[in-house]
Amino acid sequence: MTGSVRHEVGQLPIAIEEAGRLEPAAVRAYTLQRFDVPVMIEAYERVYQQIFARMHHPGRPTGRQR
Fold first, then answer.
1. What per-residue confidence (pLDDT) applies to 61?
2. What is the pTM (predicted TM-score) of this model?
3. CB of 37 closer than 8 Å to CB of 31
4. Beta carbons of 2 and 30 less than 8 angstroms apart
5. Please, what is the Cα angle at 31 between 11 and 42, to 5 degrees?
6. What is the DSSP letter of 65?
7. How does DSSP assign 8-64, residue by residue?
8. What distance in Å separates the CA atoms of residue 40 and residue 10, rounded to the nearest whole number?
């Protein structure tokens, strides 16, 4: 487990308790896999390319590219 999402303020004490049981190495690996600088650059470039394609080809679906 690398974390959890809570939708209610009343659930925060449980989340805080669970946070103490997280494995730091697993959290770090998860974070690097999804949010490391090269990963974020690639994601932003993909979004910018989709926006650019829509600007130059309105009405044409761009879809998700990988």
1. 64
2. 0.60
3. no
4. yes
5. 125
6. -
7. SGGGHHHHHHHHTT--HHHHHHHHHHHHSHHHHHHHHHHHHHHHHHHHHSTT-----
8. 33
How far is Cα 42 from Cα 26, in angstroms, rounded to an integer?
23
| Amino acid residing at 54 | R
Q: Kindly give the confidence (pLDDT) of every residue in the chain, 66 residues in length, as a single tens digit, with 9 standing for 90 and above.
A: 788 899 999 999 999 999 999 999 999 999 999 999 999 999 999 999 999 999 988 776 656 555
Residue 37's pLDDT is 97
CA 30 to chain CA centroid, Å, is 10
User: What's the DSSP call for residue 7?
Assistant: S
Backbone angles phi, psi at 64, to 5 degrees: -90, 130
**Which residue from 34, 48, 32, 42 is spatially nearest to 66, judged by alpha carbons?**
42
Distance of CA 25 to the CA centre of its chain: 18
